[in-house]
Amino acid sequence: MFDPAQLAALTAVLQTGSFERAAQALAITPPAISQRIRALEERVGRALVIRGQPARATEAGARLARHAEQVRLLERGLAEELGLQPGATPRLGIAVNADSLATWFMAALARLPDLLFDLEVDDQDHSAGWLRRGEVVAAVTSGADDVPGTDRVPLGRLRYVATASPAFAARWFAAGVTADALAQAPALQFNSKDRLQADWARLVAGRPVALRCHQIPSSTAFVEAAERGLGWGLNPEVLAEAAIAAGRLVRLLPDRPHDVALDWQVARLPGAALAPLTRAVRAEARRSLLQA
Q: Are β-strands 138-141 and 91-96 bridged in parallel, bridged antiparallel, or unpaired?
């Protein structure tokens, strides 16, 4: 067992980024915070905090902080079952892709006003890694293997459409959306993990296409970049529909949308305590995503 006061000190330091602010949050002195962190590090035999501005967690520190939040979540659930006053509000670490965050996921979180959330934004094909490392308790994933110790719930499909400004489409795709045109026309890419444009181009061209890409790490800026003629890209249909209706964007191939199947993977250990979160996510997904 770990000392709850030491775990609270670790969590406070990582949340505030400072030993001094952590001391203020817990109403104790900075030396007391340092003493508790040092004792916890001696207990586990490794460093937990990278001292700096701001203070950051080591890999072990992040794992231990997530454990502390899971314990707090379980205790809160038990208190509610027994009719007792809940303790401190738990913070839930969740990994989610940027396009879900920009389209439907925030509405799910808003259904749970009594919880706090730490969101880690990552590509849906990589978000399961956060769960596997124990850094979050749940994740929106796509195509990932089941993470040991978690349950998987299919959510539905997020539809993407390939879009560009009318002038861009006229310049680069006047002869059609061909492999040669796709290889020449500047494309948009969220980051180096983003394979959506490459996957769509391969399906359309019938072979892999080496794309020339801008990197635009923002869902809303991605739409704006396409509107301004910076490049072509796949945007969530719900984000692009207003610009399409207004004529600021056109669909490159209206009959070739690209659907991404999303899943919800949630840690099994605090599963009962996480049930309200899972219900909220599933309800919003049923409302917002395409269902089979």
A: parallel
The CB-side HSE value for 209 (13 A sphere, CA atoms) comes to 26
Each residue of 154-190: pLDDT tens digit? 999 999 999 999 999 999 999 999 999 999 999 999 9
| Equal fold, 4-81 vs 159-259 | no
Give φ, ψ of 88 to 5 degrees. -60, 145
What are the distances in angstroms from CA 6 to CA 68, 90, 195?
10, 16, 42
Burial class, 292, CB count within 10 angstroms (exposed 0-12 / middle 13-18 / buried 19+): exposed
Q: What is the spatial distance between Cα 215 and Cα 205, in angstroms, rounded to a whole number?
A: 22
Assign domain 159-259 one CATH number from 3.40.190.10, 1.10.3720.10, 3.30.470.10, 2.160.10.10. Answer: 3.40.190.10
Q: Give the chain's count of helices (H) and strands (E).
A: 13, 11
| Segment holding 92, helix H or strand E | strand 91-96
This prediction's pTM: 0.81
Domain 91-155+266-288 architecture: 3-Layer(aba) Sandwich (3.40)
